[in-house]
Amino acid sequence: MLEALVSAFFVMLDPFRMGMLMAGVGIGIVVGILPGLGGLMGMALVLPFLFGMDPYAGIAMLVGISAAVPSSDTFPSVLMGIPGSSGSQATVMDGYPMARNGEAARALGAAFSASLIGGLIGAAALTALVPFARPLVLAFGAPELLMLTILGLCMVGVLSGSRPLLGIIAACLGLMLGMVGGAPAAPEYRWAHGVVYLFDGFSLVIVALGLFAIPEIVDLLARGGTIARRGSGLGSGWMAGLRDTMANKYLVVRHSLIGVLVGAIPGMGSSIIDWLNYGIVVTRASDRSRFGKGDVRGVIAPEAANNAREGGVLMPTLLFGVPGSSAMALFLGALLIFGVQPGPALLRDNLELVFVIIWSLALGNVFGTIICLALSKPIARLTFVPFQYIAPVVLCIVIIGAWQETRHFGDLLTLAAFGLLGWTMKRIEMPRPPLLVGFILAGLVERYLWMSYSIYDWEWLTRPLVIAIAVLCVVLMFGGTVMKGRTLRATAAPTSDSQSAPQSAPQPTAQDKPDA
Amino acid sequence: MTRFWTPLAAALTATATLMAAGTAKAEFYEGQTIRIIIPFSAGGGTDTFGRLIAQHLGRHIPGSPTVIAENVTGAGGLLGSNEFTRVDRDGMTLLTASGHLNLRAFLGLEGLELDLRDLDPVVASPMGHVTAIHSRAGITDGTEIMQMEGRITKGITDPVGLIESIVTLEMFGIEYRPVPGFGGRGDTRLAFERGELAINTQSSPAFNASVLPLVEEGTAITAYAIGFIDPDGNPVRDPAVPDIITAPELYQQIHGEMPSGEAWEAFKVVANLVQNTRGTIWVHSEAPEEARTALRTGVDAMVQDPAFIEAAASILEGYEVISGPGLDQIKAELNAAPEEILDWLRALMTDRFEVSFTPR
């Protein structure tokens, strides 16, 4: 194994392959920055050029894309409150308030350094777990996956902040909207009324852009001025962000590991991992008062997890030929072009290729983060440019991002409809993340419930892992209340991991309060 | 004067006509762009096949047109294939369909406007399938397939997309328990390894890569290959897995006679229709004669090209593309499929899985 690890490194040192890896990183950064486009789009763009290319170079390029996207998609999430791709939705929660407080560079510095460490932990974990990945992946059958999705739904409370009832209503609305289109376990179309466009349901990308991008653009334009509401400099800069990450190193490692493990389970999409990690960091924190208003821990946790995830999703992809994410489905197709059949036999027959992938992942993360760090200062200045100058460009990019989903007129109508819904919710201070979580999980809960019952009848309820996750759900729901009591009691004593919150921003409801 | 000019004029006219005819015939696609609609997302098997053809076909067609592949995705191929029914029949737009999209069109799935009777195949590629049984079903050999124990679960993705394996189970008369909700065959493979599913059918290359190791370690047994059917109705071994017995042969071993009845007739239709057209490039039958001839000429030249053969080897995974007379046979089999068997297939899908059809 060690031998293959070393020989794969020398395979990668070839200038052409390194060049292709860098090209992949470059493409990944661009599609990551553009809202609505993600790794899937980046890979689809280069797919036609793979025919006839050196397999190692082609694979390095694809892995480079998937390594760079979760770093660069932080830019729009932090700077404009627009998710850069579906894996960075939760970064908006605290990253954007930080930018509005004039701390964009600090948020980006923290995000990229957490991304880098997360990505390296992901690659290392993939190397270490390759021999053990099979039992991990096999431990999660339909009932266990069902419980994980229910765990995700339990995050709704955490994501609702101080308005739990409105949050639950939003989550129910999300569940309802998630049911539109082809049913997950029966050949029927729900609420499609014969409209072929609705057969696939609403696209997650368009829903997220509508909910977060459109209301932000509208309100910023209505208010006038710049994105950052105070301060004239970039805050304490990205070095402060680096220090934040170092101060929270335990957090970075914990969420990187969660990212890898959950990523390794097929059926858990990138947005679920993102929200799950955000929910966990909030629940586990002793001082929760700053979350949603610009707590740097709310940036570090999901960013470490979403880069580490890329190591996780490769496990089922390579070992079982089961795509761990939608971008990995495309990666599988690319392997086919090179005549590689993923499966258990790959580890036995072509270990070198597996390690080329791991090296590409690690190197891609390093290059990607360095480039993003270098870009962060100039790009963060955008938050100090009067928004009316950048709004047309942002709006165009958002519309193109939505349009590339199916290139059907319905894409634009859906964007407009969800934009209106998001803007209304923002006005009435209804939290939007629960809607998104409900929307993402609607189909999965139904699918896994059907599968669990069809396979095990009611016996699935007695499986040990199912019970364990159920207990975790209960702890998550009621633990919050207990924690709150503890925090109240401990207000006098400052806690160890709350140094991140600056004392200069006493805005009570920065996240959802309209400014006009 | 007249006497002098007439033959000359005639000769000139004749030459001009000949030249015109010559240029028109050779240059139908000269300077043109052929667009291949791929109704599935990038990276899948059908997409890869479509892109392979798009890359190699252009330079072999007389006039060397530019060939571009375009993914028009949505609703399981519905949006892209419906768009194909609305374009001009000028030979400038082709469609890449999967075997199962072809079958959906053939049976008349609700919402699908494509009608295979209006189309001609340009080139196609086959793909066989193999069924394995998990060892928890308590059998050690394919011949014991009728004595499986416990919950005989089979994962269902899209029922029409699994029709060849479902019809085969009907042919054997195996009582199984469908488990709906799976995203793809890869997901069923994983649930099969966990023992959640007792029966699992994979494409032959996927079987070799990821199910065969389970057979070797004793978690699963190989039951049968679906196999192909020759023009006389006899089973033919799957070239990717020539050592695995085909379903009709296994039936004969168990029962001492070849299968018969509607399920067998349906099997013969489905096994070839789905498995011979795993990837199919279609052109409208109403497209100009020159266009269809030029495309066929291009394909015939392409399959001889070493560059194409090399690129195709890894993508087609042990099979060869179907061109020339093989395409005529696909068309003939489509036309020959008895209407009552199609009704039987529709009834099977509707009764068991509630799939709706609008037959034409």
Summarize the structure.
Chain A is built from 23 helices and two strands. Chain A has helices at residues 2-12, 15-33, 39-50, 55-72, 74-80, 91-100, 104-129, 133-139, 142-154, 156-159, 164-178, 204-223, 237-247, 249-263, 270-284, 297-320, 326-337, 344-349, 351-380, 387-403, 409-427, 433-456, 464-489, and strands spanning 181-182, 189-190. In chain B, helix 4 packs across helix 9 (262-276) and helix 9 (262-276) packs across helix 13.
Instruction: Give me the number of helical elements of chain A.
Output: 23
Report mean pLDDT of chain A, rounded to a whole number.
82
Mean of residue pLDDT of chain B?
85
Give the helix level of chain A as a range of percent. 55-70%
Q: Specify the biggest β-sheet of chain A.
A: 2 strands, antiparallel
The CATH superfamily of the largest domain in chain B is identified as: Bordetella uptake gene, domain 1
Rg of chain A, rounded, reads: 22 Å
Proportion of strand residues of chain B: 15-25%
- Specify the overall morphology of chain B: globular
> How many domains would you count in the coordinates of chain B?
2
The CATH topology of the largest domain in chain B turns out to be: D-Maltodextrin-Binding Protein, domain 2
Q: Report the β-strand fraction of chain A as a percent range.
A: under 5%
Structural class of the secondary structure composition of chain B? Answer: alpha/beta
Give the N-terminus to C-terminus distance of chain A in angstroms.
61 Å
- Overall strand count of chain A: 2
From the helix content, strand content and strand pairing of chain A, which structural class follows? mainly alpha
The CATH architecture of the largest domain in chain B can be named as 3-Layer(aba) Sandwich
Protein name (chain A): DUF112 domain-containing protein
Pfam family, one (chain A): TctA
InterPro entries (chain A): DUF112_TM
Region (Disordered) (chain A): 493-516
